[in-house]
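DATA SHEET
Item: assembly model
Revision: 1
Owner: S.N.
Input lines:
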Amino acid sequence: MKSEVNLGEFEQIVLLAILRLDPAAYGAAIRHEIESCAHRAVTAGALYTTLMRLEHKQLVASTLGDPTPERGGKAKRFYSVTGAGRTAITAAQRAYRSLMNGLELLEH
Amino acid sequence: MNTERYRLALAESLLRTVTSDAQAASIAGDLLEDRHRGQRRFATDLCTTFLGLSLQALAGTPLRHAAWLGLTACLWALAYLAVRLGFAWSGWLALSGHTGDCLAAGGVRGVLLAAALALAGLITGTVTARLARHRRQTLTAVLPLAAVFLAAAPALALADLLSGALSWHCLLTYLLLAPLCYVLPLLLGSMLGSAATRSSPLVTP
């Protein structure tokens, strides 16, 4: 049996935000994207621990950009969703849709 | 502008103790970029990130943490013994004084007893950070011992309470002594050791 990666709710949100921002997904931008799209406050601690966990699971990969003056000369770390990450998020969303099917919750 | 530079340096040096240098720098840059959220939010974000990364580092590899706990406990005991012997040799403080009595002792003797504890923590933190420098998670190495110290204080208070021996004085000793004399110096020492490691020409960044 193929082993599947189980994603938590916040992990899915972070993966979707990275996909939406691609290729400009870095910490601060991901946070703004989640706050503006999902209308929920995101603590920096939750975001960075999730990003590191996703990277450890090899669901996201990161590369360092160039240092910028508005960030005190610190480089941005850009995140991208890997193939395994895309498979995991697709499977998770399919499971949601399958469970939602017939409930008609979205119409109310 | 200077304030921003100090905030950035503080954030980076704090985060560097729980994650890699590059990761710490990029997170510090992210936090600075969100400067429009205000200083309080910057402090909250830094604290939650630091706590989150510390807990994440503690969550895995229990065997490694047990090894660090054993090593740091031995280092702390040796450092404390060395400091007490140093104090006794210089004639500042007799060897017989018990550390738990530093609040009861009061005055110079109490301060010296507390200083002995704090110095032992600082030395242990600094040495451990140097030993853990290759992992680039210098604080993670001292966190198990810090957790034991923090857990011991309420446990001892509870034991005293159950035996009917708990007084306000004892409770104050447990509540003040553990964080100020045991845990804080350990963490500060770790940060000092981490900073010294970075600036050392022997360690390639």
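QC remark: The interface with chain B takes residues 26-28, 31, 43-46, 48-49, 52-53, 64, 67-68, 70-77 of chain A (CB under 8 Å).
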